[in-house]
């Protein structure tokens, strides 16, 4: 029982350490500890959030180059703990993200991005022929994400017999492992993830 509890404690510590490794890239960290990420709340009363820092992300659906700045129209999606848009999540709404300087549309159009910056308010625009109130963000930093596919192999068989080395009160022995004979013959999975 003691060994079982020690294994559980070690697993808990490892999980906490790995969770601590989850970080937001410096390009979209921002100045405030928790930038606003709830677009629906901002859309309902944009005047209350003017001047606050926000972080939004999603797919760039339109790029407009203006004099001295580039405007990205982003179909936003919820962000995960690392500020990456959650793939396959439904769009929460659209924003206009204004970046100082020229950004080539070839580099960002139809790409996944996260932006951080100050909320300027809202402006009327259109999606197709429908009028729409866009939340406007003055971008301080942005991160373009790359789609990458990775292969996830099923768990392989584990030998059910394991050597328990000598301890304080026993000389050591061969015996069944605490996990039993785990085997998953399921198919190989391909996952799509976002990387920097």
Automatic annotation (TrEMBL):
<dbReference type="GO" id="GO:0019867">
    <property type="term" value="C:outer membrane"/>
</dbReference>
<feature type="signal peptide">
    <location>
        <begin position="1"/>
        <end position="19"/>
    </location>
</feature>
<protein>
    <recommendedName>
        <fullName>Slp family lipoprotein</fullName>
    </recommendedName>
</protein>
<dbReference type="Pfam" id="PF03843">
    <property type="entry name" value="Slp"/>
</dbReference>
<keyword id="KW-0732">Signal</keyword>
<dbReference type="InterPro" id="IPR004658">
    <property type="entry name" value="OMP_Slp"/>
</dbReference>
